Every structure is written in structure tokens, then in C-alpha cells.
Amino acid sequence: MSTDRLYYRPIPQAQGGRWPLAGGWTGFSALECLQRGHAPRVVTDAPDAVIAALTAPRPPLMGLALDRPRLMGIVNATPDSFSDGGHYDPVNQCRVLAAAGADLLDIGGESTRPGAEEITPADEIARIRPALEAARGLLPVSVDTRKAAVAQAALQAGAGMVNDVSGFDFDADLPGLVARAGVPVCLMHAQGLPQTMQDDPRYDDVLLDVYDALEARIARAVAAGIPRHRIVIDPGIGFGKTEAHNLAILRRISLYHGLGCPILLGVSRKRFIGRIGGAELPADRVPGTLALTVAAIAQGVQIHRVHDVAEHAQALRLVAALNETREAGQ
């Protein structure tokens, strides 16, 4: 990797700004220039290509405009997910989250918590099919899977997007399937597999290493026939990352707007929130999750994958009301 490369992170400001950030609700007038081995420095301009990537409005996702934050409700059709595995009926949960204010649903049948074991595609399909059928007509639906066979069955059952936590590293057949189906995909960054990813994750510079890895995943997807406008990125908080790595990414997550794709963030109820916030049980980590969500919204992050939709929907209504008041000059 080159130590000469410069990276530009927009410094979002709540009101106005010289440039709009990703066609969304915030803007920026200055940037942090980042370089490996050097301290960040603030600059007031960047190359035209950088500004173009940072300012271009992101296209709608499954019909949802991304000019405001969107809530992706988590539906785990698994017995062993770290937070809520086996605690509810996935079919009913689809209806609950839709009524609570979710914009889209993410339905998964295989746990990817640290230490989780792989299951067969047939078992994964059997777990998610009833929820997919229940969600049809409720909201746009994403399927959370690493496997082409599962993705194909989910798309046939009504899913409109694939959310691959491996970023196309797990199943070589998945990129071609997504390209042929003409659906959007979320490419997440993960270091290692769920069974071992938290054993001893290491990076030279986690913020920039993840940027480079996502850039490579986007290029691979485009080469497979998936246009950039159908790609969403996720820096993969907690997937092969320590608490310090997670915090480093979250502090400067607006850097990833430079990749020119919408950003999806999944921090909901994760272990580091409990450790920092003093909440041992995942269900008690809602306030900490909300704090990180609001901070990410201030950095222009468009899609928030959460368990607790009603609480987040309330928070987003308050954020929107504050923004409207500022715009009105009150």
C-alpha cells in the first residue's frame, strides 16, 4: 500500500456549508487530509474528482430516497444471534418493525456473531422463507446472507437487495447472481470469518485500511457487472475489529462518503457499546446505540441497521425537527 496517497474526509457542519454532502441533509466547507504516517491536517479544497464523489446525490435504494436517514429493521430468523436470537417470531417481527417506523427490513437466517458456526444453505433458506413471505408488500426487504443459493431463493421470495457481510469474499457465485438479478447489494468489510474474526484483529491504520478494502470490493463488484449506483458500503463495525478500531472508524466515518456510495452502519446493541456504556445485556444497550446513530447521522450516514426501530424513529423525528427549525431561522 502506498504511503503517499491522500484521503479526504469531509468535516460535516449542521447548517449550510460550501458543498452538500452526498446530496443529503448536511454540508461541509473544509476537509481533513489524511495520509499514512502523518497527522491529519485541515484543508479547504480537494481535487475535483474527490469533491464530485463527496457531493453527488446518492440514488434511491429500492425506491427510498436517501436525502434523509433511513432505518433498516433487523429481523433475525436465527436461534443464536447475539442480541435477540430465538426471542421472537420473525414473521410477526416484520409487522412489528414496519409499524414502528422501519423504512426497510433486513432478514437473515445465519448468525454472524463472533464465534458463530456456518449452517447449510438449505437450513438458512428454511429459516428465512416465512419472514420473507410475510414481509412481501410491507416494506422493501434485504436478505442478510453470504451465499448465492440463499440469495437466489430470497430474491425469488420477494427480497429486493442482498446484504453480504463478507463483501463478496465468501461465495464466488454471489457477485454474478446479484449482477444478473439487477438488485442492489451492500458490501461490508470484515477481517476473517465469524468463527475467528475477533481472535486478534490487526491493522496498520484501520480507518484507511478499511477504506482501501471497501474500494477494492466495489471495484470487484463493478467488474462483475454490478453498477456503482447499486452498491451500498458498510465499514463492518465489530467484524474483525477491536473496540479501539470501532471507535476510530466511528469518529471519522464521513471519510467513506469519498467512495461515492451510500453508507450503511450496523452498531445496534454491540458488545463495545455495553462495555463503554455499562450495559451487560444487549437489550439494555439501546441508549448507547442511539447515541452512536445520532452521531453518525451528523456525519451524513444514510442507512442505520437497528433492532430497536421505534426508539430510533422517535430520535430521527427530533433530529429532523431541529434541522427544520434551523432552516427556518428560528
What's the short version?
This protein has helices spanning 48-55, 90-100, 121-135, 148-156, 174-181, 206-223, 243-251, 271-277, 286-298, 309-327; strands at 7-13, 19-20, 27-34, 41-43, 70-76, 104-108, 141-144, 161-164, 185-188, 231-234, 264-265, 303-306. The chain has 330 residues and is of the alpha/beta class. The relative contact order is 0.13.
Describe the structure.
An eight-stranded parallel β-sheet has the order 10-9-8-7-6-5-12-11. Strands 1, 2, 3 and 4 form a four-stranded antiparallel β-sheet that branches. The protein starts with 6 loop residues before the first strand and ends with a helix. Helix 5 links the parallel strand 8 and strand 9. The longest helix is centred in the last third of the chain and has 19 residues. The protein has 330 residues and is of the alpha/beta class.
Q: How many beta strands in the DSSP annotation?
A: 12
Major sheet strand order: 10-9-8-7-6-5-12-11
Amino-to-carboxy terminus distance = 49 Å
Largest sheet: 8 strands, parallel
Can you give the helix content as a percent range? 25-40%
- Going by helix content, strand content and strand pairing, the class is alpha/beta
Mean pLDDT: 93
Q: Roughly what fraction of the amino acids lie in strands?
A: 15-25%
Tertiary shape = globular
Radius of gyration: 19 Å
Please write the string of helix (H) and strand (E) elements: EEEEHEHEHEHEHEHEHEHHEH
Query: In terms of per-residue confidence, which ranges show pLDDT below 50 for 5 or more consecutive residues?
Result: none
Number of helices: 10
